[in-house]
């Protein structure tokens, strides 16, 4: 078979890895399933009048990211030709440039030289789906009150600036955080490690969603309820005044079965998300698949048990949250840990998810996150990413070239240094995505309406932004938005 140029070094020729190519295409299709599944989850956990708005945010996330990644986003995020390890050069892989190359996925264990790869467009498609999932998760964390036009602009902002920066820092071969141990001289050859997106996807989704909801302010439902509890006087808005009591009484959770179906499809799609991140068909992808399933299953059972102990019921929403918390917790670790590590992380995720949701309801009531974007993705992504230098087993991680043992596997002083490097990367990435999301809302609000008005929230964004109700069959008789 003829050799093609390596995308990492266009002057080097490597062979096409046909099994890995097929596997990454399949993984890309599985990850795509996660995007509408996130829409189903949000639609099921919010209120009926915002169901279409939820689904539309997911669809447009993949639409906008697909265009941006082909045009310039992929080159910015993954180009080994880098601007100081901060951002890839924009033109090397833009709009078909150098796509007749192979992205290395198999390396010589002796000197780490690339042996074979998958077509660069296949790797691009795979990474496009990750970027789309990140956007869809952010959207699910800001339900019911962000105007759709503002959401579209935010998608472009993230696709062109925020996501490429974070992905390049953490995942690019020459990214600043990926090589932080070498850059600082503390641990040459190592840096932050994120197998499938604990930092790049879940911390970004959870903390960006938190920042946006805080910048927008609580929903009318929460604001009105809290105001009545504090002062006994209703929220002042003449146009919405007659509807506020109904608004406060409307419960979240339009369709719990819909949310459960969305979660099951997310679990299924995660088999492309985590095992696909091995980039090849090998024992690492096998470990990642088993670890992904184990952590999700255990977290679900533990969360249900904790809920039963604390609240006296087997709560289906807690089960959904536990599954997702386990999937998030294992994501940065999936190809680095053994089954014992996955079991422990699953137990941790089950407990953490329930406690984080309860803490948010008590201490961050005004944030108003009915889908659980921050406690599920932000908190579990943060803790799971910190856990990598603790649980990494070289017998598993070494298949992909990571030979440094975690602290619990005899890593010693180097593992402690690695933990410090990992913690720095997690904190920097968290601060960056939070500040940029908050800043976007504040800057955009100066020239456009980012948040729905009280009257629009009461009516629901399905009608206000999309002109149709999810429960109206005849569009001609659909209520007219105010």
What does this structure look like?
The protein has a single domain (16-104, 118-477), classed as Ammonium transporter AmtB like domains (Ammonium transporter fold), CATH 1.10.3430.10. It is 62% helix and 4% strand. It is built from 17 helices and 4 strands. The model is unreliable at 473-482 (pLDDT under 50).
Characteristics:
482 residues, mainly alpha, Ammonium transporter fold
Task: Please write out the topology.
Layout: E1 4-5, E2 13-16, H1 18-45, H2 51-78, E3 102-107, E4 114-119, H3 120-140, H4 148-171, H5 180-184, H6 198-216, H7 220-231, H8 244-249, H9 256-273, H10 283-311, H11 316-330, H12 339-363, H13 373-391, H14 394-397, H15 412-444, H16 454-459, H17 461-466
Parallel strand pairs: 2-4
Antiparallel strand pairs: 1-2, 3-4
Helix pairs in contact: 1-2, 1-3, 1-9, 2-3, 2-4, 3-6, 4-15, 6-13, 6-15, 9-11, 10-11, 10-12, 11-12, 11-13, 12-13, 13-15
Mean pLDDT: 91
- What pattern of helices and strands is seen along the backbone? EEHHEEHHHHHHHHHHHHHHH
Q: What share of residues are in beta strands?
A: under 5%
Seen as an oligomer or otherwise, the chain set is single chain
Helical amount among residues, as a percent range? Answer: 55-70%
CATH class: Mainly Alpha
Number of strands: 4
